[in-house]
Amino acid sequence: MASTGKCEYCGSTLLSTDRLCPQCGAPNPNYIEPMERTVFLPKTIEELKEYCAERGMPLLRMRFFIGENFQEPKAFGIYKDGDEYVVYKNKANGQRAVRYRGPDEAYAVNELFEKLLEECHNRGIYPDGKPVGDEKPSNKKSFLKKLIILYLVIFLGAAGGSFLYSHIAHQHDGYYQINNNIYYHYGDDWYADSGSGWYELDTEPVADYEDYYVGSDYDSDWGVSDFKQSSTYQEIRESHSSDSSDYDSWDSSDTDWDSDW
């Protein structure tokens, strides 16, 4: 059973299950972590891609290659090889250390995801939400303002809220075959292959499009090029990256490239 107490900053009643004060957002020093928590985490390669895209992560500069068997030195990555998923690190000398190879996609994605967060945290970047410290503020008004901002970032942006939004916004992404034509749906936009490259359509090709879904993985038999290998898709990803300044100073040389992981 949850115990009660008082917030030392605003005096509101707190439960031991309240991580933050619901009135002022101050941390609860008596917070007890629940045994089970519902956390929105990427469980597939595609979900991990969207998680990174929504946070504006410049993956090429970060040296993370999601869904790609990248061969050059200094790289972390994950890709599907037949019925198995491979999580790897290419060290500075070009030697590959395989972290996981097996059929469990969720486990494989989580291995790379945790490493991605670790690299971010080591640089003072918190895409999963910056942890709240237990230090007492010297300026109560300023402290509460910062906590409110942090609260919004954690619960509406960088943590589960942002991932949930991403999941909803991109849950219908993929290839669609409509009237013998192949289209790609990404977020709220539609794209078609002109033969010389993918371009954005002004309107959606059909209103009720769910029944025309043919998959998220590319098939060369469709007679179009791979959307996710196109310059159009790269421009979309770069536009996400340019929206965030958190990664401007990212230096891949700060990673320990000599260790196995």
Observed structural traits:
261 residues; alpha+beta; five-stranded antiparallel sheet; 28% helix
Question: Describe it for me?
Answer:
By secondary structure, this protein is α+β, with helices and mostly antiparallel strands. Among the domains are: 1-37; 172-228, no CATH class. Helix content is 28%, strand content 20%. It is built from six helices and eleven strands. The longest helix is centred in the middle third of the chain and has 19 residues, at 140-158. The relative contact order is 0.13.
Number of helices: 6
Number of strands: 11
Structural class based on helices, strands and sheet pairing: alpha+beta
What is the radius of gyration? 22 Å
Percent strand equals 15-25%
Describe the sheet with the most strands: 5 strands, antiparallel
Order of helices and strands: EEHHEEEEHHHEEEEEH
User: How far apart, in Å, are the first and last alpha carbons?
Assistant: 41 Å
For the largest sheet, list the strands in their spatial order.
Answer: 10-9-8-7-11
